[in-house]
């Protein structure tokens, strides 16, 4: 290579610069954290140029100021002082004019304001300051500076050229990496949005917007994606079956069957045959082989309703099926394997049943993997108006009615009723009222007489003041437990009584705190 060498020393520009640029480009490409990796790059540059120090200043377009982003040969406090306004000092000028500036002997220059307070000479030798703008598509994003010993024999043009190339490489990589970070962040954000949409997606069939219900939808959406056994708990008529359907419809098994078994409706003698099927001739009348519900639900979901009513003997048999997902048909010896997701439901207090010996503890732990407590209607009265509209709509369609609305006084009566039969009761009340309504409006006198008594709302004075006070006390405790999701300590705090005092009342009024847990 016969290039004219303007650089002092033995080396000529060419090969060593190529190696430097290659080294820097590799470091930039492999960098995972550019800010951290810039100092080693500046160190390579300083060594190559036989310089004293080097630093990069980044221009912030919003504040019109520059700050040192990375440095080699500067202390942390010196770096911290490196803040410049546009046009301030050499760096401010370079960024403002988008042109390189060289100060040959900084100790003699008035332009060199030395904001970072470094020595102006080195061992009695003068220092040269070279600063080039960092350009991206002709827009200045910052500056790259180098300080080296002054040598009148050295032309700085090649240094300016080299620094400009390095600066442009750094600026382009920074933009590329920043783009990638932003792209990744945008994808993460999108993912978060989708996840939260998925979490809060409301079911079509289950009506209710109360906070409690929205919490339940999020739980259902989460557990539906898994294969875990779900135990739905809550009073009768609360919608447990609807929740079971929702879990199935949102699960991976949704294209397979959802098979329902009402455990309390089957006579004990038939339960096993119903669940596991039977072989031909297994017993008198079994004239052909019949598949059980487990086999029919293979690949899908088996909904075991009223599981608290299962006889102990069947619970033992189910233990193995729930553990191994395998069983034999009644009268058969061939082991059948199934892939079934179990959703169970009960309105009974299983813990109490265990204490009484009516429910097996081992079976309880097998089904109590993911319990979901559905609160009774009286604990989420906010949902009553929307449920009423839903049922009016339903009966209009079913019976070709034209009911337009319900009066405020009728709705008020529905709002204060205790709803021991929960939503099933409300549904029946609305059906009856729609039939009774004469002018396409549901009035309070269209509601069943049971709702029109003070008794139904707990507002009777019968029994005197003590009874009314007790009823009020009971209601306050229930409301507090609803707010705290069954947490007695927090409920006591809310009511400003001791936990012990609340415990005594809970016992006295036979309030089942477990029912308030969601
Ligand atoms: N949130 C709801 N939105 C709309 N309808 C509901 C809702 N909850 C319950 N229902 C309706 O109420 C009736 C009773 O619901 P479901 O049979 O699911 O209750 P359950 O808790 O399984 O009762 P049980 O314990 O007696 O079996 C059904 O007609 C159901 O459609």
**Poorly predicted residue ranges:** none
The value of Rg in angstroms is 39 Å
Arithmetic mean pLDDT:
88
Number of helices: 18
Describe the global form.
elongated
Biggest pleated sheet: 7 strands, antiparallel
Organism: Labilibaculum antarcticum
Pfam families: AAA_lid_14, GAF, HTH_8, Sigma54_activat
GO biological process, one term: regulation of DNA-templated transcription
Keywords: Activator, ATP-binding, DNA-binding, Nucleotide-binding, Transcription, Transcription regulation
In short:
The chain is α/β, with parallel strands linked by helices. It has helices at 15-30, 34-49, 76-81, 89-97, 157-200, 211-224, 240-249, 268-276, 293-296, 312-324, 350-356, 361-367, 384-399, 408-416, 422-436, 464-483, 488-495, 499-508, and strands at residues 53-60, 65-72, 83-85, 101-103, 121-122, 125-136, 139-149, 230-233, 258-262, 277-278, 290-291, 301-305, 326-328, 335-337, 341-346, 370-373, 405-406, 441-442.
Can you give a write-up of this model?
The structure is a single chain. By secondary structure, the chain is an alpha/beta fold. The chain has four domains: 15-180, GAF domain (Beta-Lactamase), CATH 3.30.450.40; 213-373, 3-Layer(aba) Sandwich (Rossmann fold); 377-457, Helicase, Ruva Protein, domain 3 (Orthogonal Bundle); 464-516, Arc Repressor Mutant, subunit A (Orthogonal Bundle). The protein contains 18 helices and 18 strands. The strands form five sheets. Strands 1, 2, 3, 4, 5, 6 and 7 form a seven-stranded antiparallel sheet that branches. It has a five-stranded parallel sheet with strand order 9-12-15-8-16. It has a two-stranded antiparallel ribbon with strand order 10-11. α16 (464-483) crosses α17. The model has no long low-confidence stretch (mean pLDDT 88). The protein binds adenosine-5'-triphosphate (ATP). Adenosine-5'-triphosphate binds at residues 206-208, 236-242, 305, 347, 390, 423-424, 427. InterPro entries: AAA+_ATPase, AAA_lid_NorR, GAF, GAF-like_dom_sf, Homeodomain-like_sf, HTH_Fis, P-loop_NTPase, Sigma_54_int. Pfam families: AAA_lid_14, GAF, HTH_8, Sigma54_activat. This is Sigma-54-dependent Fis family transcriptional regulator. One of its GO terms (molecular function) is sequence-specific DNA binding.
């Amino acid at each position: 290579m016969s290039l004219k060498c303007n650089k002092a020393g033995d080396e000529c520009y060419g090969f060593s610069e190529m190696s430097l640029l290659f080294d820097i480009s590799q470091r930039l490409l492999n960098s995972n954290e550019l800010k951290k990796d810039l100092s080693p790059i500046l160190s390579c540059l300083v060594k190559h140029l036989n310089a004293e120090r080097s630093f990069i200043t980044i221009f912030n377009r919003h504040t019109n100021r520059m700050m040192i982003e990375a440095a080699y040969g500067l202390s942390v406090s010196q770096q911290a002082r490196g803040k410049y306004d546009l046009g301030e000092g050499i760096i401010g000028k370079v960024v403002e004019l988008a042109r390189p500036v060289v100060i040959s002997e900084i100790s003699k220059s008035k332009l060199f304001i030395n904001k970072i307070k470094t020595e102006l000479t080195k061992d009695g030798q003068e220092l040269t300051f070279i600063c080039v703008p960092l350009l991206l598509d002709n827009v200045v994003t910052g500056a790259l500076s180098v300080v080296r010993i002054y040598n009148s024999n050295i032309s700085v043009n090649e240094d300016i050229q080299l620094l400009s190339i390095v600066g442009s490489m750094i600026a382009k990589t920074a933009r590329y990496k920043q783009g990638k970070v932003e792209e990744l962040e945008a994808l993460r954000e999108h993912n978060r949005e989708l996840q939260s949409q998925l979490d809060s997606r409301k079911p079509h069939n289950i009506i209710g917007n109360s906070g409690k219900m929205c919490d339940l939808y999020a739980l259902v959406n989460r557990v539906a994606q898994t294969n875990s056994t779900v135990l739905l708990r809550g009073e009768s008529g609360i919608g447990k079956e609807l929740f079971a359907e929702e879990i199935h419809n949102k699960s991976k098994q949704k294209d397979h069957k959802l098979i329902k078994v009402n455990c309390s409706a089957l006579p004990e003698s038939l339960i096993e045959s119903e669940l596991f099927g039977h072989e031909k001739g297994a017993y008198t009348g079994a004239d052909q082989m019949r598949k059980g519900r487990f086999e029919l639900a293979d690949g899908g979901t088996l909904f075991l309703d009223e599981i608290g009513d299962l006889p102990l003997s069947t619970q033992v048999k189910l233990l193995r099926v729930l553990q191994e997902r395998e069983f034999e048909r009644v009268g058969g010896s061939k082991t059948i394997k199934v892939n079934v997701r179990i959703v169970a439901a009960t309105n009974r207090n299983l813990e109490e049943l265990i204490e009484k010996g009516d429910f097996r503890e081992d079976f309880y732990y097998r089904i109590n993997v993911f319990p979901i407590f559905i609160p009774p209607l009286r604990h989420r009265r906010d949902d009553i108006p929307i449920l009423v509209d839903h049922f009016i709509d339903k009966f209009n369609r079913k019976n070709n009615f034209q009911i337009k609305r319900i009066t405020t006084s009728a709705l008020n009566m529905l709002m204060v009723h205790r709803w021991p039969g929960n939503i099933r009761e409300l549904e029946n009340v609305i059906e009856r009222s729609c039939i009774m309504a004469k002018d396409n409006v549901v009035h309070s006198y269209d509601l069943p007489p049971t709702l029109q008594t003070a008794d139904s709302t707990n507002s009777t004075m019968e029994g005197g003041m003590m009874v009314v006070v007790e009823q009020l006390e009971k209601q306050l405790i229930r409301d507090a437990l609803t707010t705290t999701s069954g947490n007695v300590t927090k409920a006591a705090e809310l009511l400003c009584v001791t936990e012990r005092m609340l415990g005594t009342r809970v016992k006295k009024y036979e309030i089942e705190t477990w029912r308030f847990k969601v």
